[in-house]
Write a structure and sequence with these properties.
Layout lengths: L2 H13 L2 H8 L3 H15 L4 E4 L2 E4 L1 H32 L2 E7 L4 H12 L5 E7 L1 H9 L5 E6 L11 E14 L13 H5 L2 E5 L2 H14 L3 E6 L2 H11 L2 E5 H6 L10 E3 L7 E8 L7 H16 L1
Parallel strand pairs: 3-4, 3-5, 7-8
Antiparallel strand pairs: 1-2, 5-11, 6-9, 6-10, 6-11
Helix pairs in contact: 1-2, 1-3, 1-4, 5-11
Family: Belongs to the LysR transcriptional regulatory family.
InterPro entries: HTH-type_LysR_regulators, LysR_HTH_N, LysR_subst-bd, WH-like_DNA-bd_sf, WH_DNA-bd_sf
GO molecular function: DNA binding; DNA-binding transcription factor activity
Length: 301
């Protein structure tokens, strides 16, 4: 039994005729028929019934199709996994995670380094600041970029934190929101809003403080996807809490185009944004260089 034979069975079950199947697979009809017959003989099961109208699955064939498809899928997954292992053994692989959004300067410097001939592989991901810190602590990633405030400094005590910039948690709204007409944003104005929140435990600490001042607030959506957040703000006249500095440098630009209001007079909205890594594990030189380039670019803007 070969993988090709299994592919032939799946394709024949869909095309229903030897001629159409052979044409799709770019093999001869006789070769296709022989391969399928050999598989049936090996298994001791008749998979197809052939008649003048075409080829139909037998009842036994219909039972076998899901298992055949599963074998094919698992075989291909195994081959992909093995190929990736081979790739990893040939070049260095660096794991980096960003809080909420990948920063545009990081992408620009990464592309520059790759274009210059520095050969490495990057496993790049996005998560909440809390998750980034947790993954660094558990050595699941080599380097993280997170936003830290007074509520969560305790979580990075055993890690190295290299600040790059300060940012503030702002209230982002639609351009039609009446809160923009207010001379002063107070708790009464906040209570009227519908919130769509980023899935970020560090932001949640600020939101809980806001609810302590305002009472229960109306949360209609929680997600990690910025496109969904922005769409909900625009179409539902909702608001969100997001860090101004990250929005400015995000690879996803529509968020920074929305009006934003300060809530610093109500809660501590300050964050420090920077690199998080385990100082006991030596960072590879390529990552250090990438971190230096991105930091320089961010501090100049």
């Amino acid at each position: 039994m070969t993988l090709d034979q299994l592919f032939y069975v799946i394709e024949l079950s869909q095309q229903r005729t030897l001629a159409d199947t052979a044409n799709v697979l770019h093999i001869s009809q006789s070769g296709l028929s022989k391969a399928v017959s050999q598989l049936e003989d090996e298994l001791g099961v008749k998979i197809f019934e052939r008649n003048r109208y075409g080829t139909e699955l037998t009842p036994e064939g219909k039972e076998l199709i899901p298992f055949i498809q599963e074998v094919i899928d698992n075989t291909l997954k195994f081959k992909d996994y093995a190929t990736n292992l081979g790739t990893k053994s040939k070049k260095e692989v660096f794991r980096v995670a960003f809080a909420n959004t990948i920063l545009r300067p990081f992408l620009q410097e990464y592309l520059k380094m790759q274009a210059s001939g520095i050969d490495f592989r990057m496993d790049l991901s996005q998560a909440s600041s809390a998750k980034v810190v947790e993954r660094v602590a558990h050595h699941e990633i080599d380097l993280g970029f997170a936003a830290i405030n007074d509520y969560n400094h305790q979580y990075i005590k055993k890690l190295e934190f290299k600040p790059v910039h300060e940012g503030h948690l702002r209230l982002f709204t639609s351009k039609q929101n009446k809160i923009l007409n207010a001379d002063y944003i107070d708790t009464a104005q906040i209570r009227k809003q519908r919130f769509v929140l980023f899935d970020d435990p560090y932001n949640d600490a600020v939101f809980r403080h806001l609810q302590f001042l305002c009472g229960p607030l109306d949360v209609i959506l929680r997600t990690s996807d910025p496109w969904t957040i922005v769409s909900s703000i625009k179409r539902l006249n909702a608001v969100t809490l997001a860090r101004d500095w990250q929005a400015l440098f995000s690879v996803y630009s529509p968020l920074v185009e929305l009006p934003q209001l300060s809530i610093g007079h109500l809660v501590n909205d300050q964050f420090e944004l920077g690199w998080v890594y385990d100082d006991e594990v030596m960072l590879p030189s390529v990552l250090k260089e990438l971190m230096r380039r991105v930091t320089d670019r961010l501090k100049k803007t």
